[in-house]
Amino acid sequence: MELSASEIWAHALAAARTYLPEQSFQTWLSGTEAVGFSDDELLVEAPSQFHVEWIEDKYGALLRRSIEQRLGRPLSVSYRSSASHASPAAFALPADGPTYSSPPYRSRISESKPTVPSDKLNERYTFDRFVVGNNNQLAVAACRAVAEKPARMYNPLFVYGGVGLGKTHLMHAIGNYLQQHAPQTHIAYVPTEQFTNELVTSIQEGATPGFRRRYRHIDLLLVDDIHFLEGKERTQEEFFHTFNALYDAQKQIVLTSDRAPSSLSGLEERLVSRFAWGLVADIKPPDYETRIAIVRKKSAADGLFLEDDVIDLVARSCTSSVREMEGAIIKLLAFSSLTNQEITITLAHEALQESRIPTLVPSPSTSATDILNASAAAWGVEPRGLVSKRRTRDVTVPRQVAMFLIKEILDLPLTRIGAAFGGRDHSTVIHSIRKVDRDLQTDEEFASRVSRLREQILTGGV
After folding, report:
1. Is 76 within 8 Å of 109 (Cβ atoms)?
2. Per-residue pLDDT tens digits for 132-168
3. What share of residues in the chain are helix, strand, coil (percent, to 5)?
4. pTM of the full structure
5. What confidence score (pLDDT) does residue 363 get?
6. φ/ψ of residue 70, rounded to 5
7. For residue 377, what are the contacts with CB-CB under 8 A and spacing of at least 6?
8. Which long-range contacts does 403-406 make (Cβ < 8 Å, 24+ apart)?
9. How many Å apart are CA 160 and CA 258, to the nearest integer?
């Protein structure tokens, strides 16, 4: 009798469980699922890219051997992250707009979840997964109201706040809610930088009518990082008309930004006024009680049980953003698995280096130059390379990271940050900050690297 993908993987997991500590098994393998199978390959889905890399590196050979013993023949095992795969129907556009498709994982593999472009809606970003606190109550309530009754209550909805506080999560949650409850809804999610790039391409190719149809014949437009329109006159003009077309047609518009509309410089006044037509809601950094709730929810979602004192430690150590707390939980998972130890308060102190400092706040003497030098050292380049005009990747990435951390830690004005990097203008700084912010959401190895650098800076190790 031919075995199914789930039966083959269940056998591999059962065999692996006999060899591994229970903590390691629960942390890394219990949340995996076989989603595709062919004659010579099995496709397995794990909760995150971090899980994928860890399983392949640490347990891949063991799992393959178990499967080979069960089948009596070798079978290749491939892994992917469930966080980057969502339902393609969430990104459907009208018939008169362009269509988007992505190739299947492998043409010979039957999958339960087809792939979609990674810059679209993330199915893990739902209202149920979002922790509500005093810092974000208004924003969450407004997003729920928009999801339940689009274009009838708050239009446009403008959500603003600092890096890593949940703006993008809420925006995706609106789209995911409508996809579930009103699947016929035509939804477009687009970062502002992508909107700009598509406009430039359409102008170069003489295809602006198609560009306009794409964005002006939809039911819900989700635009992330609208502050990136600053200084882009042609893009502002195009977005102004897109906004008017959708608003007049009673279609819902949702925008996010790092600042309130009134604080956006370099934007036409007519755009700023329209952004405030509906509701403007801000998200502030979470208070202690909300951070506790976030750590509980994030750890539970990863199948991880943490004692109250460990939860308290993470909540006190990570005060700036939700993403920082997520990084701390990942670090605890990795440290626990590497040392084959349960996560106790002692291990958590060691993993998070909390014993060196009670809370992660910058030293009064920390300067932009200190952060620039630390970023250069972390990527193995000379500090002068970060202030030069060079645009090669070896200096571009640490330069962007340094700008991001200077803004996050020291909250300096964009013009001062640009001046520290060879006199770059504020739009370049904004682009760098948003690029790092997006990469932190999609690249867990990069997020871990930035988190370690941030911790080094905040604990005085620069």
Report:
1. no
2. 888 888 999 999 999 999 988 888 999 998 877 889 8
3. 55, 10, 35
4. 0.53
5. 58
6. -75, -40
7. none
8. 403/429, 403/432, 403/433, 403/436, 404/163, 404/432, 404/433, 404/436, 404/437, 404/450, 405/371, 405/375, 405/450, 405/453, 405/454, 405/457, 406/368, 406/371, 406/372
9. 5
